[in-house]
Amino acid sequence: MMALLNCLKFKMGSSGRRRSKRVDDHATADADDDYCSTTYNDPSTTLKVKVADDDEVMIIKRYSWAEIHRIADNFSSVIGEGGFSTVYLGQYHQYPLAVKIHRNTSSSQRLSRLFKQELQIMLQMRHPNIVKLLGYCSDDEREEGALVLEYVPNGSLHDKLHHDDDDDDENYSKNYNSSSIGIGVALPWNKRMQIAFQLAEAIDYLHSSCPLQIVHGDIKSSNVLLDNNLNCRLCDFGSAKMGFSSSVNHHHHHHDVDRSSLSSSMLPLAGSPGYIDPHYLRTGIASKKNDVYSFGVILLELITGMEAFNQKLLTSILTPAILKNDNLMSQMTDPRLAASGGFPPHHQLLSMTSLAAHCILPQPTLRPSMADIVGIIMTTIDDTTIDRH
Question: What is the CATH architecture assignment of 2-150?
Answer without folding.
Answer: 2-Layer Sandwich (3.30)
